[in-house]
Amino acid sequence: MALLRVEDLSIRFGGLAALADVGFEVAEGEILGLIGPNGAGKSTVFNVLTGLYRPDSGRVTFAGESLLDLAPHAIARRGVARTFQNTEVFRPLSVLDNVLVGLHSRLSGGVFGAAVWSPRVAREERAARERALALLERLGLGDVATMEAGGLPLGRQKRLEMARALAAEPRCVLLDEPAGGLNPTETRALMDLIVRLRDELRLTLIVVEHDMDLVMGISDRVVVLHYGRKIAEGKPREVATDPAVIEAYLGSAEDA
Ligand SMILES: Nc1ncnc2c1ncn2[C@@H]1O[C@H](COP(=O)(O)OP(=O)(O)O)[C@@H](O)[C@H]1O
Ligand SMILES: [Mg+2]
Question: Which of 17, 163, 214, 223 is the least buried, fewest Cβ under 10 Å from its Cβ?
C-alpha cells in the first residue's frame, strides 16, 4: 500500500503552470527519484508536500490522511521531513546544536517548555544530546559535533541538514538535490549513505537530484517532470531509455 499518494496536483504562479495534474505514489520503504530539467517543478512538489505551497487543486495523502490543510509543523509531526536545495544550516550554531533544534520539536515541553528548568527537562535534554550525537555519528559527523556549522565544507553541511531532518524521527524524507556541489567521491559516499539510512531506519525517501548516476543508482522507481507535467515513470532503466525523457533533457540542454 502507498505511504504517500499525490493525485492531480496543480499549482500556478501567475501565468505559469508550475505543476499540472501531477500524480504518483510512494510505497513504504521505497526510494523514489524525482527528476526533470531545471524549472520542471521538482522543488514545488516538495513545497506542496511540506505545506509551504498550497496547490490550486489535487490531493496529498500520507498514511491515509490528507496533508493539504495542515501547517508545515503539523506535517513534520506526522513524519514528513525534508532538506532544502539551498543548504540551510544555522551557520553560527554548533553542529550538535543544529541537530538539537530538529529534536526539540519532539520533546514533551517543546522549545518553550524546555526554557523552564526541571529534573525532567534536564533528563530529556541529556537524552536529546545523546540521540543527536548518535545521529551525527551515523552520518559521519561525530568528529565535528562542536564545530561551528557555517565553517563546514558544503558536503558536510548537506549531511548536517540530513541529520537535522532525521532528528524528528520521520517516516518519509524528501531530499532536494543532496549531491549538489559534491565531487564524485563524495557523491558515491552519499549514495551509500542514503541507501543505508533507508535500510537501517526503515525510511521512505523521495530524492530530487541532477546527478543521474546517483538518482538512477539508488532509486527503486523514478518519476520524470517536464514543465510541470509528469512525462514518464518507471524503473530507472526504463526511464533512462524513454524517448520523451531523452528529448526533454536534450531540449533543455539546447536551451541552456
Ligand atoms: N514561489 C514561486 N513564485 C513564482 N514562481 C515560482 C515559485 N516557485 C516556483 N516557481 C516557478 O515554478 C517553476 C518550477 O520551479 P521549481 O519547482 O523550483 O523547479 P525545479 O525544482 O524542478 O528546478 C519554475 O518556473 C519556477 O520559477
Ligand atoms: Mg529545485
Answer: 17
